[in-house]
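Handout, section B. The chain below has 230 residues.
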Amino acid sequence: MSLANPRILVIEDEPSQVELLRYNFTRQGFQVDIADDGEEGLLAAKESPPDLILLDWMLPNLSGIEVCRQLRRDKRTREIPIIMLTARSEERDKIRGLDIGADDYVSKPYLIKELTARVRAALRRPIARVFSGQLTVGALDVDIEKHTVSLAGKRLQTSPTEFRLLVTLMQSPGRVFSRTQLLDLVWGISSDVDTRTVDVHIGRLRRTLKQAGCGEMVRTERGFGYAIDG
């Protein structure tokens, strides 16, 4: 990705919204691709993954929610920042959008300045560095093959569950995962299991990192879930 000239994919079926977004983001130096229905947007994202996707909730052929869900299941597109655009403004709708993998949620009508700021923030999200089976965020290193964790060269002791939890968070630094997402990704179990399980293991992981001098690397997004910051 070139931060000076990022490419965004707008998946939106309202012509007036398409032109508004195309005009304003092109003026600011973005490359803008357009898809006017869910199936076309999904295909475009997979064939030529953009730097960021602006995704409308209500789309013909395939809903924005389902597009987002499928993008997050595909290795080619699962790390692309996705911002959902929708006229639905209730809190439960926001949580649902974030829960299936969107990075942010903007209600219509929106201010272009606010949307642009959110787009730029999403594009600045750090990317984990992976080399020879090692995952690195800040001073924290995980050797996926050897199943080890170290901070600035010092080995840390983690349980198997804490290790899987840490790897999941480190694969997308800065991205907030809901408790339901973490249950599915780390435990591989359905979302009807008590989400307090996640809180307990996050607490243990935090204590391990804090005792090693890592501070508050694991961030809580109040009312939603957790992220790890570099």
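Note. The longest helix spans residues 196-211. Compare this with the example in section A.
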